[in-house]
């Protein structure tokens, strides 16, 4: 398994390869960086991959695109993606299942960035063309868990957080031969509690499998909601083996302004919530957390971490 969490500022995008499986989790872009045009297309060109015709456009194929939830910072490269890449599976909180009152259907009127051009593109240009089964490209290495959007919408406790769009996030767990990575999207702490609690009355899917995976251990955590304090979940860490991640907590950093309450939670960078068993740790001290503001964060087949601001370095690593 190879993973890169891109430096896209306050957005989120990651690319994963597990054997022949190739997929993306979210497609946020930075001010001067496109995960599609600056990474995927050059990588596939260098490898000599074939392009296929889709409605008159030549596109590369990948196994799956997972959009954790329809917020613009997770979708800002979606039009570039659709121009160049065709995913066999397109998976996001559902919106076109039948019947119309299906509890897994998202309520677009409750999406707080519904008028953003990229959110509208996903909804009006991509989703109507695709069936969106809630499944993963490889059930042996991937697990998917989520709260039903209808349950989130009707929950009094979650309404208090005013975070419907975040709380319908799909959580994805990857288990490779040498390490595991967990992407919980932007789910906030109360919704994470509901997702993991056996006593929760909210309908959800994948709870038992996710909890079993967490109990086996989490090597890398892509911290929920960009590492902000509002989404730090003690329930999540309580479900993990040893109550902490093994290797590294990764923050796709949300820029904050002076006196802004949206601060990255300092607990991610402590030994209370990470063992620090990674190649970045030295005799001078363990490393528990890294932010994408330091560069694109790459994890190789053996779990070795490399960080570089130059995407060409990351392409080289994927081609080794």
Write the layout of secondary structure elements.
Blueprint: E1 2-5, E2 13-18, E3 21-27, H1 36-47, E4 52-54, E5 57-66, H2 78-84, E6 85-91, H3 117-126, E7 142-147, H4 149-154, H5 156-159, H6 164-167, E8 171-175, E9 180-183, H7 189-196, E10 204-205, H8 207-216, E11 220-222, H9 234-239, E12 248-251, E13 289-291, E14 296-299, E15 305-308, H10 311-319
Helix pairs in contact: 1-10
Brief summary of the model shown:
This protein has helices at 36-47, 78-84, 117-126, 149-154, 156-159, 164-167, 189-196, 207-216, 234-239, 311-319; strands at 2-5, 13-18, 21-27, 52-54, 57-66, 85-91, 142-147, 171-175, 180-183, 204-205, 220-222, 248-251, 289-291, 296-299, 305-308. By secondary structure, it is of the alpha/beta class. β5, α2 (78-84) and β6 form a beta-alpha-beta unit.
Describe the structure.
This protein has 320 residues and is an alpha/beta fold. The chain is 24% helix and 22% strand. It is built from ten helices and 15 strands. The strands form two sheets. Strands 1, 2, 3, 4, 5, 6, 14 and 15 form an eight-stranded mixed beta sheet that branches. The protein has a seven-stranded mixed beta sheet with strand order 10-7-8-9-11-12-13. A hairpin with a 4-residue loop joins strand 8 and strand 9 (180-183). Helix 1 (36-47) packs parallel to helix 10. The longest helix has 12 residues, at 36-47. The protein is globular and about 60 Å long. The protein starts with a strand and ends with a helix.
């Amino acid at each position: 398994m190879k993973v890169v969490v891109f430096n896209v500022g306050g957005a989120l995008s990651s690319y994963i390869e597990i054997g022949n499986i190739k997929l993306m989790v979210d497609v946020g872009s930075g001010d001067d960086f496109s995960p599609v045009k600056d990474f995927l297309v050059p990588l596939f060109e260098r490898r000599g991959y074939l392009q296929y015709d889709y409605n008159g456009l030549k596109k590369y194929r990948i196994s799956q695109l997972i959009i954790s939830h329809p917020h613009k910072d997770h979708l800002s490269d979606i039009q570039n993606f659709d121009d160049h890449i065709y995913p066999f599976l397109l998976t996001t909180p559902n919106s076109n299942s039948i019947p119309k009152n299906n509890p897994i259907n998202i309520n677009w009127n409750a999406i707080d960035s519904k008028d953003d051009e990229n959110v509208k593109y996903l909804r009006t240009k991509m989703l109507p063309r695709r069936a969106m089964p809630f499944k993963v490209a490889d059930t042996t290495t991937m697990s998917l868990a989520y709260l039903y959007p209808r349950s989130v919408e009707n929950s009094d406790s979650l309404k208090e957080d005013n975070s419907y769009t975040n709380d319908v996030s799909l959580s994805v767990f990857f288990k490779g031969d040498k390490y595991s990575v967990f992407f919980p999207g932007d789910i906030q702490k109360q919704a994470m509690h509901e997702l993991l609690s056996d006593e929760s009355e909210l309908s959800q899917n994948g709870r038992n499998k996710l909890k079993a995976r967490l109990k086996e251990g989490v090597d890398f955590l892509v911290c929920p909601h960009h590492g902000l304090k509002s989404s730090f979940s003690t329930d999540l860490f309580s479900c993990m083996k040893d109550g902490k991640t093994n290797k590294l907590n990764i923050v796709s950093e949300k820029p904050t302004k002076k006196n802004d309450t949206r601060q990255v939670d300092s607990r991610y960078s402590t030994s209370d919530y990470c063992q620090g068993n990674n190649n970045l740790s030295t005799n001078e001290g363990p490393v528990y957390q890294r932010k994408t503001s330091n560069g694109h964060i790459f994890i190789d087949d053996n779990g070795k971490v490399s960080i570089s601001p130059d995407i060409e370095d990351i392409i080289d690593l994927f081609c080794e």
